[in-house]
Every structure is written in C-alpha cells, then in structure tokens.
Amino acid sequence: MKSLSLFLHLSSALGSTTPSLNQRSRNDSCAAVSTVHLQTGAKCACSKLATSYPDFMIFPGSANYTTQVTDYWDVRADLDPACIFLPTSADQVADAVSVFTTCQAQFAVRGGGHMNYPGSNNINGGVLLAFNHMTDYQVHNDTIDVTPGMTWYNVYSALEPYGRAAIGGRLKTIGVPGLTLIGGVSYFINKYGFAMDNVVSYDVVLGNGTQVIANATSNPDLFWALKGGANNFGTVTKFTLKTYSMPHISTTIQQFNESAVYDFITATCNLVLADSETTVAGGSVLDITYNVTTGDVAPLLLGVQEGISNPPSMFTNFTAIPGVSKTNNVTTSKQWASNLDSPKQMFRVLFGMHAMYPDPNVLYTMYQTWKSAIDTIADVEGLYPTFVLNISPASAARVAQTNGIGNVWGLDDEPLIWWQFSTGWANAEDDLRVEACIHQLTEHLHGINKQNGLARDFIYMGDAGEWQDPFAGFPAENVQRMREIRGKYDPLGTFSRLNWGGFKLGV
Ligand SMILES: Cc1cc2nc3c(=O)[nH]c(=O)nc-3n(C[C@H](O)[C@H](O)[C@H](O)COP(=O)(O)OP(=O)(O)OC[C@H]3O[C@@H](n4cnc5c(N)ncnc54)[C@H](O)[C@@H]3O)c2cc1C
C-alpha cells in the first residue's frame, strides 16, 4: 500500500520543540534537512547507531539477521532491513529516533510482530527497531509497568503470583505494544473496556528524540490520542496498565461440526446482545474454520469468565448446542494463555473485517457466501480459511464514554459483531489470487450490509486487511483532533513520513 522507494521532502527544521511539551528536546540545534533517499538515510542511521551501540546492531549476513527478519507471524511480513537495532532502554530508543530524524532515515518498529501485512512492522532497505531486548516490568498494587518487548503471556505470568490480571490479548504471544496502541480486545472488555481504556500512563519518545509522559495530567491530549491512535504520534517505551484482582478464571472450549453452524452463530449474537448489561467480566474467541480438502467445517468457542463458577455461566447458549467436544476448567490467565500459542511463520495470511449489528440470519448467509467463495480458490496450497466473529458489547463502549478520558474510536453504545476473514496460505505465487478473492468478498458482503442497514463504519486495526482504512470509520471530529495532536507532538513528521507500517492517519 505504500512504496518504500518514497523520497522525502522535509524542509522543516529539526529539533524545534512544542512549548507545551514537558521535557527538553534532545535536538536543540536546528539543521536544514535535504531530500534523502531510502538508502542514504539508512546508511547514515545504521552507521551512527553502530558507532554508539555496536553490541545491539545486526546487519545482513550476521548470525542473527535471519532470526530477526523472520520473527513475524505472517510470512509476508519478512522483509530485508538494511540494519536492525535492538535497544535495551528508553534512552536508547530516544537516541535511535533522534538519529532517524537527523538522517531522514526510514524505519519500522516491531513489538510482538503479529501485525500481518508486509511493511506493517518491517521495512526493506530501511532500519528496523525491534523491542526483543526490552522486557522489563514492575508490578505495583493495582498497576503494572510494561516495556514494549513483552508479550501478553509475559504480563499474565508477571501478575499471577499476585492473583491479578491485566486487560490484554487473548492468545499467548501477541505483543503488548501493538495490541494496546490499536485498542485491544481482551476476554474482559464487557466490564473493563478495551486494553487502551486500561492504560493509565505511556512513556513516549517523540520524533525529535524527546521523552515525554502522557497520562491524565501530563500531555492529556497525547494520552487520549494514544488510545487507539496506533503509531502515529511516537514510540512508546513503557505502558502502565491497570490490573484487577482475578486469581482464577473459568474457561470452556467447545468444538462443533457443520450442522451446528446456524445455532453457533445465533448463540454468538445472543451473547453480544445479552452481554451488554452484564457485571461479570467474560468474553470469547469465536470462529469457524473450513478445511477445503476434507470439507470439514469446525465452529470453535474459547470462552473465558472471571471467577470460579464452573462451567462459566455466560456460555450456556453454546453448551446447549450438540457438539464434538466440550471442556470446562478453572485456571489462571497465565495457564490458559500458555496453551494458546500463535506460532510465527505459520503461513502467509490476510485479514479483512467489518462491523455490523448482530443478525444471525444475515451472518449465516454470509457464512455460506464465504464458504462458496473459498471453494473457488480451493486449489491454493495450504489454504487455511477462518470466519471469525468478534463480539463488541455495548458495555465495552460505555467504559470509554464514562471514564472521563474516552478514546479515539468514539464507539456508539450498541452491541456489534466484528466479522473477520482470516485466510492463510503457503506460497507467494498465490498472493494475488487470495488477496483479490478476500478483498472482494469482504467489501461485497459489507456492501450488502450497508444496503440492509446492518453495517457499521468501524474497522478494527487488529482484524483489518491492509487495503482498509480504520480512520475512515472513526468519528470525523476525532480524526481531526488526532491530526492536530500529531501536528503538535510530531511537527517534523517523523511518524508520518519516516516510520513505515501500521495504519497511518494520513494527511
Ligand atoms: C494470532 C493473532 C491473534 C490476535 N489476537 C488478538 C486479540 O486477542 N485481541 C486484539 O485486540 N488483537 C489481536 N490480534 C491483533 C493484534 O492486536 C495486532 O496484530 C497487534 O498489532 C499485535 O501487536 P504486536 O506488538 O504483536 O505487533 P507488531 O506487529 O510488533 O506491531 C504492530 C504495530 O504497532 C507498531 N508498534 C509496535 N511497538 C510499538 C511501540 N512501542 N510504539 C509505537 N508503535 C509500535 C508497529 O510498528 C506496528 O505498526 C491478534 C493478531 C494475531 C495475528
């Protein structure tokens, strides 16, 4: 979606700080910026960083280069950066960003490496800043400080001895930074809101290398913008997350076969409708996998609820459906996540999603259309198609509406299904076919839902395809406010012009 051969035309002066920022700029001197080519910028930045941090730099041909450039969930995201910097502290991150801006070097940032499209978290010929070495944390009474190399499993493991949990990813190895900056769907959104709603403070490196804190009292506008605004404002070096007493969770794993699909979809709609008034925190992973080789269709529920009521009471609608297997357990967030790995390099994989008001009949027709569309590409090697039903209850939206802070999404107070196609496949030669099929199908179904009044504009960055524009689905006034905040905190355009990847706010 974006050409990496972009030439930059920055004429702004470096190092000019915004007066209201809380800390001093690292680049107080002004320097003229000339147009710099991708290679020239990378050469400058790689050389400066290698001089300052020789032990934390990796270049093509060195022993760990391949390990680093394949540390991605989606094989399509494996690219070839000119060099890789693995900082160990916020100060080093600040130095690096300062170098990127000074050199006009194009760069990408990687946390857990799960965002899945080429260039979302990696870069050909530029600099990759990867957070693998920043895995420190500190547990406080009702918060935890988390650095951006941590996965959610790391967070749940850190909190388990205290009988507490944070509001984060549903699978084991998803990174904290990417998920938290784009919003973050946990099992417990119905009661506690999204992951972003549970961040009480961010430590941020701005484009000029300045380090600032964004919270309710310090840079509150930036604090708001980081709640769903992704990587458009700075690089976050620490998240302070709320934690909740949750020594145990009650879980259910229920597998069904094709004859249960309609009831499964109906139970999903009922779950998000009923969940809107609940006081029990709980949620799910719900999907339907289609094996084109065997013809098997497998609906799956992973249900989680706080507490020890066994089986978890929220999922009785599913329990009533005859299934292949049903397993209930009382466990901890750490133990539960430990079994839910999402291994890197499994496949090439494309997402695509839209939001709609829950309607089981329409969703069932969508399921049938999806299955027929998948049949048309059934010869694609390694095809792994999944129809995902994420639930966004009205109560999840209400958290931001009532907490005095809000977030950039501005979701209305209504239950939604975020339906998603996740499609894996094996070979690059099939990229265009799979992408065209899924892109067309996703927008076709959304178009029908627009006509029947069920569609909503909201697009979740964590479930979206690379062709989609989540910002177009946020309230226009929020997008305008984000642009103003970006202009204030990143006047040099470091995160809009030099930092590749993720979903960018645009001009
Ligand atoms: C298997 C799987 C399961 C998932 N499950 C969930 C789920 O349960 N809930 C949910 O909400 N989402 C889920 N997602 C979506 C997931 O939240 C996003 O892919 C998210 O971006 C992953 O975060 P990460 O740190 O691993 O990603 P990365 O790919 O490392 O980063 C994502 C984006 O954030 C930027 N970034 C990373 N670190 C920083 C930083 N410190 N400062 C500024 N920008 C940064 C990167 O440059 C990139 O653009 C899932 C995705 C996958 C593939």
Automatic annotation (TrEMBL):
The keyword Amino-acid biosynthesis is assigned to this record: no
InterPro entries: FAD-bd_PCMH, FAD-bd_PCMH-like_sf, FAD-bd_PCMH_sub2, FAD-linked_Oxidoreductase, Oxid_FAD_bind_N
Domain of life from the UniProt record: Eukaryota
Keywords: FAD, Flavoprotein, Oxidoreductase, Signal
Residue intervals of the FAD-binding PCMH-type domain: 77-246
Pfam families: FAD_binding_4
GO MF: FAD binding; oxidoreductase activity
Residues making up the signal peptide according to the UniProt record: 1-15
Entry similarity comment: Belongs to the oxygen-dependent FAD-linked oxidoreductase family.
Protein name: FAD-binding domain-containing protein
Organism: Aspergillus sclerotioniger CBS 115572
